[in-house]
């Protein structure tokens, strides 16, 4: 943790006590599970289980919000989603939770790892090792974001300074 000078504490790196972070649970260590979804009829495939496309849309949106909060810029785009490993599924009425952790801050990019779990069966639904977002400037070209570490605060959220 570090003192930010205005009385607030910034929690960095692998600190274990912030938000809804999952504590020491094997491979989910360090991942923040921010968002929960309730699987509804419109989210199902013909097999009656969760449609992968719905899940990927939710993850892309979740990852975009994460990138915006980490990089302090709304102008970010998905560059890469690595292999998606669907390990288990969900049925109508199940509750799922989506977790992300930044694994690398590049010059203009941020890389994160994703995991989705079924809260009812307690199984991992999928993992994605690399989701890469690129920070863009006003010209729409990649622009340096200047960050090297995860923030667990809202200090970089666009508009955070104006609202303070
Ligand atoms: C994102 C985009 C502007 C990047 O353009 P680009 O010419 O590849 O830019 P650069 O070569 O300068 O790379 C920018 C960053 O992306 C990273 N990158 C580029 N290609 C990559 C790849 N295949 N995998 C992982 N990272 C990659 C680079 O390493 C760099 O990161 P760094 O500065 O942290 O090292 C361009 O590819 C684009 O507009 N793509 C479409 C994005 C989009 O619309 N997404 C929504 C889904 S359709």
From TrEMBL:
Annotated GO MF terms: long-chain fatty acyl-CoA hydrolase activity
- Iron-sulfur: is it a keyword of this entry? no
Q: Which InterPro entries match?
A: Cytosol_ACT, HOTDOG_ACOT, Thioestr_dom
A Pfam family? 4HBT
Keyword Chloroplast annotated: no
Q: Which residues form the HotDog ACOT-type domain?
A: 29-139
Give GO cellular component annotations, separated by semicolons.
Answer: cytosol
Keyword annotations for this protein, in alphabetical order, are: Hydrolase
The record's Gene Ontology biological-process terms are: acyl-CoA metabolic process; fatty acid catabolic process
Which family is annotated? Belongs to the acyl coenzyme A hydrolase family.
Q: What is this protein called?
A: HotDog ACOT-type domain-containing protein
